[in-house]
Write a structure and sequence with these properties.
With 77 residues, the chain is α+β, with helices and mostly antiparallel strands. It contains one helix and five strands; from the N terminus they run βββαββ. A three-stranded antiparallel beta sheet has the order 1-2-3, covered by helices on one side. Strands 4-5 form a two-stranded antiparallel sheet.
Length: 77
């Protein structure tokens, strides 16, 4: 059964780190393509052991926080 999942990517020093929020799997790679490929493999292996019958599509949103020294002010809550 094919599933479509989302991926969150961010860069940490030399590696791209990827996460599948619906399943909770995480991986990394030297390039974004490699990191996503590794995440697909990790997620496939995870689902082989712990099958998921149904997942919901995540709602993705963004927010901005401006830092003021030791405290932060939330903008556009």
């Amino acid at each position: 059964m094919n599933h479509i999942f989302s991926v969150v990517v961010h860069k940490e020093k030399k590696y791209y780190v990827t996460e599948c929020p619906e399943i909770g799997t995480i991986s990394q790679g030297k390039t974004m393509e490699e990191a996503i490929k590794n995440l697909k493999e990790a997620t496939g292996l995870y689902l082989g052991e712990f099958p998921t019958k149904k997942t919901s599509k995540p709602f993705v949103s963004f927010f901005e926080v401006t830092s003021y020294g030791k405290t932060s002010k939330i903008i556009g809550a």
